[in-house]
Specification:
Layout: H1 3-18, E1 33-35, H2 46-56, E2 60-65, H3 102-132, E3 137-147, E4 155-164, E5 166-170, E6 173-178, E7 184-186, H4 188-198, H5 205-210, H6 218-232, H7 251-261, E8 265-267, E9 271-274, H8 280-291, H9 318-329, E10 332-336, H10 343-356, E11 361-364, H11 368-380, E12 387-390, H12 397-405, H13 416-441, H14 450-460, H15 466-474, H16 486-507, H17 511-514, H18 527-597, H19 601-613, H20 615-632, H21 657-673, H22 675-685, H23 699-718, H24 733-752, H25 757-769, H26 772-784, H27 789-805, H28 815-854, H29 858-861, H30 876-882, H31 884-890, E13 893-896, H32 898-904, E14 912-917, H33 925-933, E15 935-942, H34 954-958, H35 987-993, E16 997-1000, E17 1003-1004, H36 1011-1020, E18 1026-1027, E19 1037-1041, E20 1046-1047, E21 1052-1053, H37 1054-1067, E22 1079-1083, H38 1086-1102, H39 1104-1114, E23 1122-1125, E24 1134-1144, H40 1164-1170, E25 1174-1183, H41 1186-1189, H42 1192-1199, H43 1203-1218, H44 1222-1234, H45 1250-1259, E26 1268-1274, E27 1277-1283, E28 1293-1297, H46 1308-1321, E29 1325-1329, H47 1331-1336, H48 1338-1349
Parallel strand pairs: 10-15, 10-16, 11-13, 11-14, 12-13, 14-15, 17-18, 19-25, 22-23, 22-24, 24-25, 28-29
Antiparallel strand pairs: 1-9, 2-6, 3-4, 3-8, 3-9, 4-7, 5-6, 20-21, 26-27, 27-28
Length: 1352
């Protein structure tokens, strides 16, 4: 992108001009040109009469007739076409039309020539206006014959003046008209060409000097022509006198003329034709850029960020919103918009957003319809006053002037802070929803998302609750279930557990035996080696162990005997003493109890006295004195600790002794009666230190035995054979003996079962290889005694993962979506008011600044007529040049075409904040590059699979009366280089090569039935488009093979044309009025288009009923009836499109598979355009033989989806739909998909979750299976679960699980809202279910869902 690039653009522009009518005016066999002299065939004076009117009137009408008998429709049968009867179209024969009588043939040929030329001009002029907003019909006169200096072999034929005119007709009368608003100019293209060829300047001043009014009179005519001649050559012969009208000269006669009349010279020849806007302004811009190429930034222009707020008051679908937001991140953006995907809606949203962000937009497009759609959209929003549409600098001036001068309605101001609060709140909610989607799309375990895990958990939880027992025992086992490596841990753990479980099955019976063994035995050693070692070592240990056990057993037995002996002796002695005291007490009490027991002085006195006199009382006295010492002497029996008893002091009376003796005696009897239990307890408790020293008197033996026990235990522990160290829990000898005996038993079993160790070895060695988590789980699973190890561990992991992630769930109902929609509604209202308020204030400020700076009132600059300041009306060019900022403040959105852009606006980089190019596949780089540089942000909107620039198929349009090139057409070749940006086919291709950021629109709205778009979707878009569901089921494609004859000489198929007329007649019902559908007709060449238009006019003139129907169609406000050829139908849409494929067998039965541009390399684009224009129905009228149509699989397999192969495939597809043949229909689509070339896959590929399966399976318990459909497809929507109605009158229930979880883009929230809106709009009940709610309580959620489905 440098000066060479710019020079290449200039070259292409200039060469394009040399092929135009401006420099090559000879009509030849171009049907859209008519030689003025041809009018003499109608009336000899007509050519001169026209010139006189032209040179003497600024406004006029010039009328002439071509009589009906001379019309080429004499064979059209209105009765056969059902025009009068309203019946069906006839069946056609293959017979040719009978010839005319010879005497009329020559006359009819000439009149037919004039009629066809005028019709072609008329239809092309109307189409150009509909497509580009400009009527280009004009008249060039006189003709300059000039041999070029740069190439003497070349003689050009160029008109000097060009008058823009009107052309209309009223039945058989043609009307050529002119008004004062229509431009008149000296041929700018010619003047620039002469400047370049002669290396001279000053030619362009001719226009500036003489064309101040709207008429050229005879004297001005002569003066300008002669001045031009003299500037070319001082030797040129000047003109004078009467105009002698002569025919245009062909190439040969031009050379002769130069030889005879000199160079240059003038002929009084005139040409009627289409003077499409010359490209001199574009060339001027490119020249300007070349002159300062070193200062240009090209695509490296630094641009400030402007999109502070990304919301737009225009409703957008998710893919359109993505394009809007992409612009905030990229200053260069491509919007790929396939048919019917809302490109204009997207561009409108971008423009409204730009207006809100206080920026100005330049929208450039060659198609009038595209610009008007944007203006219409802005007007519907109340922003039409900010939009200026200029397609013709003269015609559109009044609208611009009025828009500036007319007062603006007051705008209710809105406080910006209120809107900013809504923006902030909405941002927060959207981010919350999007976080939810990002979480739902995230894999938590392997490729399982939250929904998969919930579904799997619900599905598996009925198999048991062991996972809860595991969770109760382990909780999360110290695992971070949110970590990035959780899947790795999950997989390894389950794999370990699964393998280990199978080994455990065989080792389970030996687990008790060998679980004592140390795990180190099972590492890096063979099982056999371990078996041998264990057998030897344990046997050795057992021998030592038995010695110790025997020693302890003997000791224990001896100790037991000693205890028994000691206890018996103790009991005997204790009883003896007790009995002696008791006997002494009883015998003395029998003598005198009172004196014996009393311990007072009186008793003692009396007893002393009696003892003096009686030996009996003397003995009593002695016994009384000894009994207490004996009684207190019983305390010695407490020293053994065998019996616990108390002896209280006797204070007042010896009788106090009696109950104590009884109590002690009882305790002794009780103790001895339970002596075995007492002994057993003592046998359990005694140690080498704490033993019954009264019973046993050999402590050394006890100590030795104790040491032996500890030693053998240490030997066992130090052997390295056992998992745990054995310890004596107490120091009791009996415990040690029992422990060693138990150990002996265990080791004996190990030795006994040593050959069973192999299974245990394999299991345990595998266990030791498991990760820590697996081992923990295996340990607990063994304790739980469950067989479903892997399933339980799996549920444990899923349960913990869900627990760990549940806090990430942001949505549990649809309330957040409702909040977003409410806020977006508020944003729309407030944003529009703020936009109007801001720009109206800015307009007022700008007007004040202009008046302060110039002293001129704005209305004086934008004048409707001459005033004190300006002697004539200021042109738009002059107005804008006076103050560009003032103009763009009034019109911050400028809609125009490339030539007008270059004509009106200064060539300055970054002049506009945004420049937007619509239908960019049809824009040439050389035409648009200067406009592109005028923008800081550059948006290119188009479709690679639709029409390329109009001259791509120019060869098919230049000549339409024969199959050969015009005899005066010169092929001018430019060396092209596909790698050179200047040679890019279109601006769209250029932007792709430059690496512009790309956004794709994928939602298809136009077609009311998917059948209408499915073909193109499969063939050209890799099935990425998502059409709307059908409002109702009907046949959207109709197929009629009329077997018509293709008249190659005239380029028409009369039978197809008649079928088209018949179809129109059948489709329109006058009683329906405005409720009738809009209709468009598409043909495969221009001549068939012209012929059908002639037939429509003829039929309307022949039948008032049909005329009424045509009137209804033509008066459709926004979609009037049209007939167009396939090259210029892009951008149009109608309810019903009728296609005439035109070609077929010729009268001799031959069939040439030459379908014009369809056969070219990129002809598939035209097919794509033509077959996607219908909103409700497509009717295909064809004459292609079936045997050729059936060849499509072979053709597309060889060449892809292009050429005649894809054309035949389309016919096969439509025929299959017509004949209710779904097998063939689907076969065609599959063939196309297999051969499709597209770079963007559908973003709506869905990922089904296990949760959906579980919801489906749960519903099967309540609804018949035939009413439940998973992944129900309708249009471009795939519904998770559809519940079909019980009867045909009911509505489908669409169930979506967790929202559009397949989508994690920033527009995820918009997909949720979009899907609900459109699915509901098509009569379905839309329900969302949330996995988080089902995870917590699936039974409750199922009840709720069933109730809602049933109407609850």
């Amino acid at each position: 992108m440098n000066i060479e690039f710019l020079k290449k653009l200039k070259q292409k522009l200039q060469i394009g001009n040399t092929r135009s009518i401006h420099l090559n005016a000879y009509p030849g066999n171009r049907a859209a040109r008519l030689d003025l002299s041809d009018l003499a065939y109608l009336k000899q004076s007509l050519p001169n009469d026209f010139i006189r009117k032209l040179l003497n009137n600024s406004a006029f009408e010039f009328k002439f007739r071509i009589e009906p008998d001379d019309q080429p429709l004499r064979t059209f049968d209105t009765q056969a076409s059902g025009i009068f009867e309203g019946g069906p179209a006839p069946k056609y024969s293959n017979t040719a039309v009978s010839p005319l009588p010879p005497q009329n043939k020559e006359n009819e040929t000439k009149l037919n020539h004039i009629s066809k030329r005028l019709s072609s001009i008329f239809y092309e002029n109307e189409d150009t206006y509909l497509e580009h907003g400009i009527k280009t019909f004009g008249f060039g006169y006189p003709n300059l014959i000039y041999r070029t200096k740069s190439d003497p072999s070349k003689v050009i034929s160029a008109p000097v003046f060009i008058w823009m005119l009107g052309l209309s007709r009223d039945k058989n009368e043609w009307i050529i008209s002119r008004d004062e608003e229509q431009a008149i100019s000296v041929n700018d293209v010619l003047l620039n060409y002469l400047e370049q060829d002669l290396s001279s300047t000053g030619f362009s001043k001719l226009n500036e000097e003489y064309l101040s009014d709207s008429v050229i009179d005879e004297s001005e005519f002569t003066e300008i022509v002669n001045k031009l001649l003299s500037q070319i050559s001082s030797a040129a012969v000047k003109i004078s006198g009467e105009h002698e009208i002569t025919p245009m000269l062909d190439k040969v006669n031009r050379v002769k003329h130069v030889q005879a009349e000199g160079n240059p010279s003038i002929t009084y020849s005139g040409i009627f034709g289409l003077f499409k806007t010359p490209k001199e302004p574009l060339i001027r811009d490119i020249k300007s850029l070349i002159s300062r190429a070193e200062t240009l930034h090209f695509d490296k222009l630094e641009v400030p960020h402007y999109q502070d707020i990304k919301y737009s008051a225009v409703e957008t679908d998710p893919t359109q919103e993505r394009a809007l937001k992409n612009l905030g991140r990229n200053s260069k953006l491509i919007i790929h918009g396939p048919p019917g995907t809302g490109k204009s809606q997207t561009l409108t949203a971008i423009i409204v957003n730009a207006l809100f962000n206080k920026t100005k937009c330049l929208v450039v497009c060659e198609k009038r319809t595209a610009l008007e759609v944007i203006r219409k959209n802005l007007t519907a929003l109340g922003l039409g006053s900010l939009c200026g549409l200029i397609e013709d600098v003269n015609r559109d001036r009044k609208l611009i002037i009025d828009a500036v001068r007319d007062p603006k309605p007051a705008v209710k101001p809105v406080r910006r802070n209120i809107l900013d609060t809504i923006f902030s709140e909405t941002d927060g909610i959207i981010e919350e929803v999007n976080q939810n989607h990002r979480f739902y799309s995230k894999y938590l375990l392997n490729d399982m998302s939250w929904g998969d895990l919930v579904g799997k958990f619900i599905r598996d939880k009925d198999t048991g609750n062991h996972y809860l027992e595991l969770y109760s025992l382990l909780k999360n086992a110290g695992i971070d279930f949110t970590s990035d490596n959780i899947s790795e841990l999950y997989n390894s753990t389950l794999n370990f557990i699964q393998k280990n479980r199978s080994l455990f099955k065989t080792a389970k019976s030996d687990l008790k035996t060998f679980s004592i063994l140390d795990d180190s035995l099972f590492s890096a050693r063979s099982a056999k080696d371990i078996v041998l070692e264990l057998d030897s070592k344990i046997k050795h240990l057992l021998a030592q162990l038995n010695t110790v056990i025997n020693k302890l057993t003997a000791l224990h037995q001896n100790y037991s005997i000693a205890l028994s002996s000691s206890y018996a002796e103790y009991n005997a002695a204790f009883n003896s003493d007790l009995n002696a005291i008791a006997g002494l007490y009883r015998s003395n009490c029998e003598i005198n109890k009172k004196l014996f027991t009393g311990l007072n002085s009186w008793a003692d006195f009396k007893l002393n006295l009696l003892s003096l006199f009686s030996g009996k009382y003397k003995q009593l006295k002695r016994d009384k004195n000894t009994i207490l010492p004996q009684f207190y002497g019983l305390k010695k029996f407490r020293e053994t600790g065998y019996i616990e008893f108390t002896i209280s002091e006797i204070k007042d009376d010896l009788s106090e002794m009696e109950p104590q003796l009884e109590k002690i005696d009882k305790k002794l009897n009780n103790w001895y009666s339970g002596i075995e239990e007492f002994k057993a307890a003592r046998l359990i408790e005694y140690t080498s230190i704490d033993y019954d020293k009264f019973a046993y008197s050999d402590p050394a033996l006890l100590s030795e035995a104790d040491v032996s026990a500890e030693h053998i235990l240490n030997s066992i522990n130090d052997s390295g054979l056992f998992a745990a160290d054995y310890k004596f829990e107490t120091s009791a000898v009996k415990h040690k003996l029992d422990a060693l005996c138990a150990l002996d038993s265990i080791l004996s079993i190990v030795v006994k079962d040593i050959n069973s160790l192999y299974d245990y070895y394999y299991w345990r060695s595998d266990y030791l290889k498991c990760n820590e988590t697996a081992r923990k789980l295996i340990d607990e699973l063994i304790e739980l005694n469950t067989d479903n190890w892997k399933e339980t561990a799996d549920q444990y992991f899923i349960f913990n993962t869900l627990l760990a992630h549940e806090s990430n769930i942001r949505l549990r109902d649809s309330s957040r979506f409702e909040e977003i929609q409410e806020n977006l509604s508020k944003i729309k209202e407030f944003q529009l008011n703020i936009i109007l308020d801001y720009w109206q204030r800015r307009q007022a400020e700008s007007s004040d600044k202009f008046e302060d700076r110039t002293g001129i009132n704005v209305n004086a600059l934008y004048n409707k007529s001459r005033n004190s300041r300006f002697q004539k009306r200021n042109s738009l060019r002059k107005i804008i040049a006076a103050d560009h900022e003032l103009f763009t403040d009034h019109f911050p959105v400028m809609l125009t075409n490339p030539v007008v852009c270059s004509s009106l606006f200064e060539m300055r980089e970054g002049l506009f904040d945004l420049v937007i190019f619509d239908e960019a596949s049809q824009l040439r780089v050389e035409d648009i590059y200067a406009a592109k540089l005028r923008g800081k942000y550059r948006i290119v909107s188009g479709d690679e699979n639709q029409m390329p620039p109009s001259n791509y198929f120019a060869a098919s349009q230049l000549v339409i009366e024969s199959d050969s090139m015009s005899e005066d057409e010169e092929e001018i070749e430019i060396t092209t280089d596909p790698g050179n940006l200047a040679d890019s086919e279109s601006l769209l291709e250029f932007a792709i090569k430059r690496g512009y950021n790309e956004a794709f629109l994928d939602i298809h709205y136009r077609s009311k039935h998917p059948d209408l778009i499915d073909f193109s979707n499969a063939a050209f878009y890799n099935s990425r488009l998502n059409p709307m569901p059908p409002v109702k089921n009907y046949k959207a494609l109709r197929y009629f093979n009329v077997c018509g004859i293709y008249n190659q000489a005239e380029g028409i198929n009369k039978q197809e044309a008649e079928k088209v007329i018949s179809s129109i007649n059948e489709l329109i019902d006058p009683e329906k009025g405005d409720d009738n559908p809009s209709i468009g007709v598409a043909t495969f060449n221009i001549l068939q288009r012209n012929y059908i238009l002639d037939m429509v006019n003829f039929a309307a003139n022949s039948s008032s009923a049909f005329a009424q129907k045509v009137s209804i169609l033509m008066n459709k406000p926004s979609e009037p009836f049209f007939v167009k050829n396939l090259e210029n139908i892009q951008g149009d849409e109608r309810d019903i499109i009728i296609i005439s494929t035109t070609f077929g067998k010729r009268a001799d039965g031959s069939f040439l598979q030459n379908f014009g541009p369809i056969n070219q390399e990129k002809g598939f684009r035209l097919l794509n355009v033509i077959v996607t224009r219908a909103k409700h129905m497509m009717i295909v009228c064809t004459s292609i033989p079936d045997e050729y149509i059936r060849e499509y699989p072979t053709l597309i397999a060889a060449s892809g989806n292009k050429g005649k192969g894809v054309f035949y495939a389309y016919l096969a597809y439509v025929k299959a739909v017509e004949e209710f043949d779904p097998v063939t229909r689907n076969s065609v689509l599959e063939n196309l998909k297999a051969n499709a070339e597209a770079k963007e896959q559908s973003i709506l590929s869905f990922n089904k979750t296990v949760f959906e399966d579980e919801v489906y399976n749960s519903l099967r318990k309540h609804f018949p299976s035939e009413r439940l459909v998973m992944n129900y497809s309708t249009g471009g929507f795939v519904i998770d679960i559809a519940v079909l109605p019980e009867n045909k009158t009911g509505n489908i229930t669409a169930i979506e699980c967790d929202g559009s979880s397949f989508h994690s883009s920033p527009e995820a929230y918009a997909w949720d809202i979009f899907r609900e809106k459109h699915i509901s709009a098509f009569g379905m009940k839309f329900l969302r279910v949330w996995s988080v709610n089902w995870w917590n309580n699936p039974e409750r959620e199922l009840r709720r869902l069933v109730s809602l489905i049933n109407g609850g």
